[in-house]
Recover the amino acids of this structure.
């Protein structure tokens, strides 16, 4: 079920809003950070309620479908998915079409950096290395090209934010699987904190703008 649900809802899941909220809280922007965090949590609850209601209606109207084991896709499909994702980010963030190559490079760098970090630090803290790499790379892009760092930073973060973990937490809690839900929620907070730490450290190592 989640194989279909997550891709359908990924644009609605506020993983990026949660990460931005924690960044604002970490930088002492308490009012905006608290408001954004509350909005993200409310969105998680709304999505979880909608999914739970839809599942309840389907279970009453249609027979429960058989459980199927998902089949893994070939390795080359990942490259296709990255290209499609980069094009989608151009539309989602209203970027210029000429920035498609930079956005694709940012997505690829963030994904590979997070994978390498997961091997070194574990699956939750691996996002720290991905955020650090994309943060430094985006700040370097801003300094050299005199363009906003968000052009490459936001698409890279979209592949790292823990939105799916938040959705799984809400889904597990609605299914009364409290232990799994709490564990997923803790993992979501840990990943978000790792992303924030990586971005803040990137800004310390390489500020996005040249000093005058």
């Amino acid at each position: 079920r989640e194989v279909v649900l997550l891709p359908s809802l990924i644009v609605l899941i506020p993983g990026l809003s949660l990460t931005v909220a924690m960044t604002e809280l970490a930088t002492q922007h308490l009012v905006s950070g608290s408001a954004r965090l509350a909005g993200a949590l409310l969105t998680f609850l709304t999505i979880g309620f909608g999914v739970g209601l839809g599942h309840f209606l389907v279970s009453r109207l249609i027979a429960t479908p058989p459980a199927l084991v998902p089949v893994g896709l070939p390795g080359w499909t990942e490259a296709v998915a990255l290209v499609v994702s980069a094009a989608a980010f151009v539309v989602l963030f209203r970027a210029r079409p000429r920035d498609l190559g930079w956005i694709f490079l940012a997505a690829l760098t963030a994904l590979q950096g997070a994978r390498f970090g997961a091997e070194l630090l574990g699956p939750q803290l691996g996002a720290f290395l991905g955020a650090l790499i994309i943060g430094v790379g985006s700040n370097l892009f801003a300094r050299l090209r005199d363009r906003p760092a968000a052009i490459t930073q936001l698409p890279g973060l979209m592949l790292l934010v823990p939105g799916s973990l938040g959705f799984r937490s809400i889904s597990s809690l609605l299914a009364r699987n409290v232990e799994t839900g709490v564990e997923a929620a803790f993992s979501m907070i840990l990943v978000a904190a790792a992303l924030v730490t990586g971005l803040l450290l990137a800004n310390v190592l390489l500020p996005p703008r040249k000093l005058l």
